[in-house]
Amino acid sequence: MDQKILSLATDKTVDKLQKFLQTLKEDDVTGLLQKEAVKGKATGALLRAIFRGSPCSEEDGALRRHKIYTCCIQLVESGDLQKEVASEILGLLMLEAHHFPGPLLVQLANECVDVIREGGLLNGKSLELLPIILTALSTKKEDMAYGKDKLSGEECKKQLIYTLCSARWDQQYVVQLTSMFKDVPLTAEEVECVVEKVLKMFSKLNLQEIPPLVHQLLILSAKGSRKSALSGVIAFFSELDKQHREELSGDELLDLVTVPSGELRHVEGTVILHIVFAIKLDCELGRELLKLFKAGQQGDSSSNLCPFSIALLLSVTRIQRFEEQVFDLLKTSIVKSFKDLQLLQGSKFLQNLVPHRTCIAAMILEVVKSSVHSWDHVTQGLVEFGFLLMDSYGPKKILDGKSFETNSGLSKMPSQHACKLGADILLETFKIHEMIRQEILEQILNRVVTRASTPINHFLDLLSSVILHAPLVLQGCSSKVTEAFEYLSLLPLQTVYGLLKAVQPLLKVSMSMRDSLILVLRKAMFARQLDARKSAVAGFLLLLKNFKVLGSLSSSQCSQSIGVSQVHVDVHSRYNSVANETFCLEILDSLRRCLGQQADVRVMLYEGFYDVLRRNSQLANSIMQTLLSQLKQFYEPKPDLLPPLKLEACVLAQGDQICLQEPLDYLLCCIQHCLAWYKSRVMPLQQGDEEEEDEGFYQELDDMLESITNRMIKSELEDFELDKSADFSQSTGTGTKNNICASLVMGICEVLIEYNFSISNFSKNKFEDVLSLFMCYKKLSDILHEKAGKGKAKMTNKTRDSFWSMKFVSDLLTALFRDNIQSHEESLSVLRSSSEFMRHAVNVALQKVQQLKETGHVRGPDGQNPDKIFENLCSITRVLLWRYTSIPTSVEESGKKEKGKSISLLCLEGLQKILTAVQQFYPPKTQEFLRALEVTGKEGEDDAEVSVTQRAAFQIRQFQRSLLNLLSSEEEDFNSKEALLLVSVLSTLAKLLEPSSPQFVQMLSWTSKICKENSQEDASFCKNLMSLLFSLHALVKSPVTLLRDVSQDIHGQLGDIDQDIEVEKTNHFAMVTLKTAAPTVCLLVLSQAEKALEEVDWLITKLKGQVSQETLSEEASSQITLQNLPTEKAIIMQLGTLLTFFHELVQTALPSGSCVDTLLKDLCKMYTILTALVRYYLQVCRSSGGIPKNMEKLVKLSGSHLTPLCYSYISYVQNKKSTGEKKKEKTAVATAMARVLRETKPIPNLIFAIEQYEKFLISLSKKSKVNLMQHMKLSTSRDFKIKGNILDVVLQETEEEGSEESTALEHREQNKEPARKKRKQ
Q1: What angle do CA 563, 565, 567 make, to 5 degrees?
Q2: Predicted confidence (pLDDT) per residue in 1099-1126, tens digit
Q3: Are 1207 and 1272 spatial neighbours (Cβ–Cβ below 8 Å)?
Q4: Could you give the C-alpha distances from 164 to 94, 115, 143, 286, 889, in angstroms and in order?
Q5: Omega of the bond leading into 212 within 30 degrees of 0 (cis)
Q6: Is the dihedral of CA 364, 367, 371, 375 positive or negative?
Q7: How much is the pTM?
Q8: Residue environment code for 506-523, b if the CB has 16+ CB neighbours within 10 A, otherwise e
């Protein structure tokens, strides 16, 4: 039979074939086809012959074809056929499909869809045919029966697709089904339907099946719905990550985790690659991705940013056209995230309304950790982004050339957080990926070398962290580091110091690098530039500190713990300590040559020797001998010769220029500290007589210092030629020389004071010597101040840096104020008898703390060691606190009146500075610091359990008592400076209290009580105290009610704009008086109102973002509206209270100037935010639901209590200005123009803001079917009607003024050349 069909098919005509096929039963044809297909013999030829004999133009032929198609689909799907045979059959079916009449195509398509719905697919091969059938169907124009309806081919196709999408898809054919749709012509709605279906299937598939499905989905999305596809994929992985984190952080055992981390990350990596590849082929997809994230940025950026989406964005940066846009997007999101966090931290009002979300910074660091799972496509983006953040948000150069950053987490600005995040990204990436390490190191070094003019501390810190992590691995990059060394002589000193400190670990493992550095430093030592020589000294001193010689004291015996420059990887075995000794002695030899160079270079050397000695005690002899021989050049050996030092030799005259050559004060300071350290650390450890010969010069140095002390005391100022008659003017050579010598003598006196105190052992004679030296210092200091005051040019430095070490200041203050030992009483009374000496000691303590705040370290020994500084700070604070609380300022000042601040006041100032410095540099040690202040005998377990809040509250109570005593004193005895300092101290301590603690509540109520009950005319005190009240209040609840009360007080004190109205004085806060109400309190409350408005604005923006992110279904939209109800209510309540606040101020007769300008600007802001709220309701308003009742009340309140008063106030301000200007004389034209512009701008802005508000209210009224405009009155200030009577008066005045001016002008121009050009009007 098959042969006959084939032979008939070869005829030219098909009649015989048709007749023969008609004689056969349908089952015979399908049975024959089935048999042949299984055999795999000439199936294609047979099928062609049957199709030739079954034309679609005839009904029988079309039905036969339909039967054949059904049979073939079952055959192909059964899996019984060979692959080639199945493909051939499918190919023929595809070719012939378009010949089918419409109704049969519908029938055929329905059958295919039913197979899918019923799970009848066995291998999914037949799915290749469905797109052809659907395509053929969509071309049929005639109406066909589909169910009960008559539909066109296109509509039938649409119904079939909807049916298919609503059916249950077999898990194993999801990818094939998705792939099938890419060959079907789809409308936008159909694509959206298919994409939705595919996204729903994600959760039902195994993880490994997701990447191929995403690939097919992205191909399909080229037809439309790119946004839905991308947002769906991102949302799926975001949820998956969230579940995975919860599983890992939960209590379950790790083996119960549904998906292993590695597998999830690998799948995410593959999906990201698919998306990036799709974006390369379809740029529109990339644009949609950016649009998606930009839309999210408008509201809550963290809602659509997750580790997966960040990794995706970083991968997209490899596509050049999107690189800049993606980085900008991420930068903006990060800074916005940090700003939001900062806003939330400072406002309890916002914290109650906004749930805590994961910070974007944490997400990015999670991406870095995940990138270990072969995310190479993300790594490059991470590195670039890390550097971009550090470049964009690093410390900026400020005017005086200094850059400074605080370390406190609370006070850090968002930009500083962003820079820190950049450094963290790079460090973590460096730790995880070996391949990228060299590139990171190279880029850091490039920035260090090329950015000499800008601050690069953040790069130096990163370099230090990177090298510390893997010094041995980075040996391979030594060429890059060596190359950077070549530029050392051209870099600023601070950069050189930071760079060499950072590369110390590398120098310890690479001898070649160390040798190349020494060569560079030796060259630099003799360079022409002074900075290059200083850099060489700094480099050599660092090397001496870090290469320990055999027999040196261990760090535990040293007075300072290991610093940043010490290495975690200690590899001294590579070359022994004997080699180190030779190396160090070589360097010392090089440094000795510096003693013949400029004073600045020598100062560096003297300041560095102490640290070297402490770390490398075996070098003590060499260093001390060097210092001794240097001192001998300037020492007068004869015991009766005065003065004991050759000051003339320290000053160098080069022509007219006179400069310091030998900083003798620094030399003596270095000797004194080295000698003290040697005596206390090395000598007790020496045994026997083996060191006796060496000890000779230590004794000699002691004798020399003793002799210098005695002769300095005997010397008069005339012996130094520095008495009152001497010339100290900076303009003459003699004056310059005398200034230098005076500075040296004062420095030497300071050094000798410290030396004699340290060796005194509380001897009365020694303390008398100390006082005599101080009197010499004081006389000279007074002369210099007197001469500087008379001269035209003031001294550049108000106070010179003291040579006293911080440890000495701490010991001296403790002895002066706290030493109660009977045996010390007599000797200490010598020092205590001089109040000037005690005041000087406290002043030096203040100077040291100020130095710490400005630079992060102090001068002198251990000045770079944070632990030692902290220890001394605790000790100094304890003494200052005791002195201030024991002897109040009032007691001290009533006793004797002296020039300058009293000691108690200085102590308080010191406490204020120290508390700020501790919060700035030592936030983790706050507990330890507060514990050190409590002078209690009991310490132990109970002591450790006391919280920071409790300790801070204890200290706060002491200062509260002091402030109360001050406020209760007579008005003439009120010390404004002390009051300000006390408020500052209380503000600083209040930051340590936990806002939820009873201690914080007590602090708030106490501050509130002070403000309510005390009336002080001092504006600064009032401002600081009220600021403290507002800052405390904001951490508990929103301070808007407080603002309303204060505004009523201001209104009562200043009176109404309508002079006929008498305002009732409310007197909520006694602190608000006629003197303080404006501008002090008024500007303060307006700035607080501005903050409250900013918070409301932030909330409205957040709400709008949630609504506008995507077009939601009715159900989802109503759900979001319900979630937002508490926030909406809070916003309306805030605005309502602020409205009453402005209602008071806008009726107040405020003085012209800043108060009026600020009020107008804030009113403008108020209306802008009211408009934003109205626009939000326009977005969410459903005609059925309308708007909330409290919103209607708010609108009513604005119409009755604010808008009319605003227009009255504008008229009041304009009248006031016009009358004020008549009284004043005319000033220069430019100044007047600038003032006019500044003063007139806020009024039009405010009127525009009011009218915009009313415009959107009209729109909302129409949409909500509620008449919101019934409470609004028509504006009056925009009435430009010309009033004749007023115009006549003004014109008359103008004419009179004009005639007066012209007369004056004629007189002036008689003595003046005619102007060449007219001033531009």
Answers
A1: 100
A2: 998 888 777 654 444 555 566 666 778 8
A3: no
A4: 20, 10, 21, 30, 89
A5: no
A6: negative
A7: 0.83
A8: bbbbbeebbebbbebbee
